[in-house]
Design goal:
mainly beta, globular
């Protein structure tokens, strides 16, 4: 019905919502920022489906090519704001610990990990 319900259950998960804060920065240009989201599965694979917007980029730190799961344009306004990026894949999620990394201009700007279990709500 379109209503979001938070869950830790991998069996009940239709999509992931990764939220983050963009902090104020007086030297950054006030323009939309392209944020890449890379989600790593419990098996160590980056969730990636090209038909759903996934792709490849070169990291600034190592110069290596790596996959990203999805990307979003964030309307950066130079002040503290929160944003969320969604990922809905075409295969079931699995149980275990996932890692999410955010990139801007090929640099890591944030990361977190979360666990999906067999059942239960937050």
């Amino acid at each position: 019905n379109g209503k979001e319900i938070e869950t830790e259950s991998y069996k009940k998960t239709d999509k992931l919502r990764i939220c983050f804060d963009m902090l104020s920065n007086t030297v950054a240009t006030l323009e939309p920022k392209e944020i890449l989201l890379s989600i790593t599965s419990p098996e160590g694979d980056i969730l990636s489906v090209q038909a759903l917007g996934s792709g490849v980029f070169t990291t600034a730190e190592t110069g290596e090519e790596t996959k990203y799961t999805t990307k979003a344009q964030v309307p950066y306004k130079g002040k503290d704001e929160s944003y969320c990026i969604y990922w809905e894949q075409n295969s079931p999620f699995v149980e275990g610990v996932y890692t999410a990394e955010l990139y801007n201009q090929s640099y890591v700007i944030g990361n977190t990990s979360f666990e999906m279990k067999k059942g239960g709500l937050f």
